[in-house]
Write a structure and sequence with these properties.
Length: 428
Amino acid sequence: MTSMPEQQMSQPLGERHWYQRVFDGNGLMWVLYFAFIIVSLVTVSSAISSDFYKSLSAGGMNPIMKHWIMLVIGGTTAVVMSSLPARYYRVHVPLLMTIGMVVMIIALILFGRATNGAERWINLGFITLQPSEFMRVYMVLCGALIAKNDLVENPKKEKAYYVYWIVMLLLSTPLILSNLSTGIIFVAFLFLYSWVLKAPKRAMRRFALVGAGVIALFAIALFTFPDSLLPSRATTWRNRIERAVSEREDRFQITDENRQEQMGRIAIARSQLIGKGPGNSKIRDTLAMAYSDYLYAIIIEEYGLIGLLFIPGLYVIWMLLAYREARKQTNVYRSNLIKGFGILYPLQALVNMIVASGVITTGQTLPLISYGGSSIIATSMAFGIMIGASRVDKPKRVEAPVEEAVVEDLPLEDDAVEPNEDEQLDTL
């Protein structure tokens, strides 16, 4: 009589149901993902002020319940993305993301509304979409497609990278204009990711020179042009930069202009070593966006040194797991996907934590932790792609030590019916 494990092993991989593939990917990544979800549930519920709770719940859904629903939607998104067949990550997902981004950018330009004078959103009634969150995922997908199977620099792809950078920056322009930190993250990530993808060195030097030139021209215009010639957001950026670099005798004074960063500093200062305890934050009621942009400051206030170190630790683990999984991959395209998401979101988290410390003031969420449906869904999508990439490559890695000479000829679990389909796609 055949035992259950033998029956499972003898079952053709292509005949397995989707729910049997859900947790086939990197198990540690799943553990990390659900750790983020638990942290988000606890910290956001604690950081939502009573006034904000009353204002939102009175006119609609309970904000804490809404956050929980967004986490469930995000978890479902991660499961779906992790269960896709291998070819979907190369063909279907990039195509659908391209269509989605074009539609969202057009809708943003025509119907977008500014929130808190910064990021522009698309209000769908039941949810507000923030296109910049999905643009991050799109950058990674497109970059991996440009690189394809390159293990070393390919000078013939210089023009392809130029096109990649121009298209990404053009699509990002409406998003960058509304939020300085979004622009900084996008440009920094494009450069880092292109370097990881083995972009031609000459193209990278030109990218750096053009970027430095644009930054210099922007800085000159920002500090020399009168307010009448600058967008309203530009004057806000200038004031914030001036406050950040200037030393004033009244630097501890709280004004309308510096209230957010000062409240963030106070929250951190109140924590001491052990913190005030979960739910005992006093600053959350006076700090705008305490549940989002400044959530890290509230976490430090409530959990002290533990919160200060634990949150960055989660993102360091994210980066290390991504790096480890990417190195194990036998497929270059999927390896680059994992590398991209392993760089992008820890970078965003770093900017958020700098903001929370009061060094700069600009809006970025803590990925998978802060309040915000668009951020949770987009980041869960990225996490699902990473886990899915580890899943579809696992059969090849398992058999590789036995027959390393033919590792490229081994079938993928999702391509059992057509064994060479994904490998053919890799050569496109």
